[in-house]
Amino acid sequence: MSTELLYTSAPKGLRHGSRGFCTVLTTSGMPINVIGKLESISGYRHLFPPDSPRAGENPVTQAHQRVSLGGQLVSVISRIAAYGTDYSGRTNKLAHHVALDASELPQAGPAWLLQQPTVMRSQWYGQCETPPTGPSIPRGDQPPRICSSWKSVTGDAGWGGVVAEAFAADAGQPFWIVYSLDHQDRLLEMMDESISLLPPSQRWRATFNTFAVNVPPDVDCRVRMVPAGTEEARFATSAGKCVDLTRTQSITTASQWVERARGKLRGDGVSVGTSTGFSAVQDPVDSEGASVWSSSEESASGPPPTPQPPALPDQLRKHSGGRLWWSSLAVIVALLMLSGIWCLSRYWAGLPLLPGGASKPAAPLAVAPPDASVTEPVVSETEEQPTVPTQRLEFPVRYDQKQMLGWVLGNPDAETPLPSPISLRGRLNLPSTLGPRESGETVQASVADPSPVSNAPGALNSATASDGGQASSDRENARRDSAATTESAFKATLIAWGGKAVRLPPAESVRIESTSLANIVGTFQVHPIPDVDPALSASTRVYWRPEGDDLIAISGFDWHADGNSSGDAASGGQAAAYRTVGQSLANLSALFASLQQQSAELPSSFRSIVAPLVLRGNRGRESLVRSLLRSADDMDEIIDEAMAVTDQMQAEVAGQAGPLNKSQQDALLRAVSDCERIVRSAQELEESFHVLQQGWTVDVADLRFQDSDGDLIRRLPLRFHFSW
């Protein structure tokens, strides 16, 4: 049975005491964790304000995404759109989500379902509701069809097959589509055509979002569409795997998906399996290459497919199969006899059965001079390496709060460029052991701000992979293991990050500031790690500090620079969120100062009403911004105060015995306006700040430490998490 949720700005929400952006409708009995998850995917960005002549061009988000609820992936279809202004006069949105049960998914697919008129809500009538069930889900199916909408937009129906191929591919990176606002009404129909090419059993694996801004990193959304000119569009075109509908592009190698979209192949016999990148999923007949495309000025042709020999007639195939079986058996028997003779001869000669089994030490590995690479010893991923524990480590890298503070104090507006680059830093204290190889889970080792703190247990502000309350003897053993592992790591002379091993550079002094608002600076003796994984920003530097056995990362991101890529689509939304947080903080500080000025001209009865807000602005601008920045994740107190002040001033006006003079009236109107703008700015600050807190993740290749003989000492599978 489907369930639904409606999210918008209202003076009173379903939850007690909620107002502003809140949930106003849910299916009866919806668990609180489901409500929270659906609210988290309700982000929206207005491209044009409500009073703009182009307000009607604001994109409508039509999405099918899969979210984890109770340990299971659940399909959620969504519609999010601009919704004029709310009760306080600020910009509003309306987000409707429908979570679907696996038993009611129509075979026609999610884009078909989103187009059905009785499923998605586009209005709210002002009353909070808890209906007993979600919307009725219609049944339907559709055959594969020629992608005529793709042809009308791009000139080639084959692009629908390229997107179908992206849906079928088992790849972790998103597939981007950049579109003109003139085409936004065609996007859902285009998605439906691409999904129709998939087998019915695979259509609900096709996830997409027609206005993919602020997509949380834990949400499955494969195809992400963004309007041209946005931060996300600039990121998408620089990150690759992008179809730009505003440019002329051509398909240079057509897969069977492309041929189906063009109508040159018929039938449903597509075998969907695991594929890499953009490899097309092939039919049993006529194996072709994957879809390859380029812009018109970059078109290039690849080598033709290798011709295959003709198949043998059935009778010859039968006889040749018998001869092949007997020949294989004879070869196996001969190999077994030769192996036995080999083992017996070495045994009688007093030699170990296998070469290299003696205790004779191996010849030392020649170490390359500084900055020269040597061949990394081959370590099989499947071979058991009990002395080299591995487990994924999350490496938190945080925004520089002082940089944000300085930018805010400069009074940024919509035209003010972002800091260049935006700085992030982090430190990861490496655990003594990473646990069993087969666990594969992500753990949080000790993490901290890279400030000059001691290595005492209480000095790290961290979430630690601990022993969970074991006996003191177990903790003592863990400390001994830690000392042994650290001592072994100190012997590392070679290092490799997904490539060839190179000599670990000598230690150097690095001066690092804390990312917190406190002015803490420290100098560390660290080894710079060369050849940083290319999935990270080109400006990211990583160091290893033997003294504390930890890694230090220093990153800088310039989202306006051409070709910049963070390795994750979520970074595009971070730029917009960073700007909104800074502008909201600057607006709030200015509004509190204005309210303080208006208060001086109000009658005493009104001054006592606005006193709580005026007191906030009395602390000085920098102190006020620092306070707002520390509480940006929860602005309910300020929002409630501002709304209460507005209501009380309006009530006081109604109870006045005599009229106010002209200056008092002007001051009162400005004070009410300031309070309403405080509410709007505080809500925008909180919503955008949550985006920064969520951040984005980048998985990188394993970092390997080796000794001078090339033997593996430690392998670190890392996941960088950039966030506030």
UniProtKB/TrEMBL annotation:
Residues 148-246 form the GTPase-associated protein 1 middle domain. Residues 473-482 have a biased composition (Basic and acidic residues). Residues 287-301 have a biased composition (Low complexity). Residues 1-127 form the GTPase-associated protein 1 N-terminal domain. The lineage of its organism: Bacteria, Pseudomonadati, Planctomycetota, Planctomycetia, Pirellulales. This is Uncharacterized protein. It comes from Roseiconus nitratireducens. Residues 461-472 have a biased composition (Polar residues). Residues 302-312 have a biased composition (Pro residues). Residues 275-317, 418-485 are annotated as: Disordered.
